[in-house]
Amino acid sequence: MRSELKRALLKKSNIILIVAVVGLMIINAYYGGWRTALKIDSAQDIQNIDDIIFYKKYYGNMYRVWESSYYMIQALAPVILVAPYLSTYLLEKTNRFRYFCVGRKGNLKYIIHKTFAIALSGTALLAFSEMLFAVVTGLLTQHDTALEFVQGIVSFKEDYFIENPMLYFALVFISHIIYYFGFLIFAIGVTSFFKNKIAVIVTPFIIVGVLDMVLPTALQPNVVMRPYQGAFRISGYCVLIGIYVIVGLILLMVSEKIYQKRGN
């Protein structure tokens, strides 16, 4: 397990992916309102210093910036999560390296280690990117938590957010981590039947899009991934992740039986 994680996490390509994720989050936050705060000093039509301070604290509020940063990542998460890691699982199947691994530690142990290594490393990469964005923007934004500056940032349990804004977003971050892990278990199971890299990368993205269309609102991935929105329900979050894990493990077991029978 340790060697699997080390090999997955210490890839040079991960640096590029982290930079890309943080860059996308910054772009989202910038066009989501942050640019108003960043450009207010050079605005020619606003001369009142009190108005300038208000816009800086409102549009440049750290929690508003964090909330507005996530939309694009939420949409692209299925691709970001699966691309670097599921392809290695596929490669080990196609180049027969898997036989060497299975010969050393047995098939069941290999599958368990490989599954958790993919899920943990993919989750860690996206979680680290979110944390890096939070730290960087935390140094560049306003932290005033007066009601006039933080009202309207979230619509799910807003009273709790106003009382404990940092804890609220810490819980949002934790919910993302759990979601990423559960989704990757699901993605591993779904894509374990495929031999084509493009299919491995694209299929989870397509499935999430379909689930957004057919599931009840509380179970839709785009709702579950944004727990600060009014449509979010904790029960829906738990049910969807439970479905991800159960379906993913069942599909992985089925694909393994097929693979062992056919040998390819």
From TrEMBL:
Keyword Membrane among record annotations: yes
**Domain of life according to the entry:** Bacteria
For whether the record's keyword set contains Membrane, the answer is: yes
Specify the signal sequence span.
none
Keyword field:
Membrane, Transmembrane, Transmembrane helix
Q: Where are the transmembrane segments?
A: 12-31, 71-91, 111-140, 166-186, 198-219, 231-254
Please give the name of this protein. Answer: ABC-2 family transporter protein
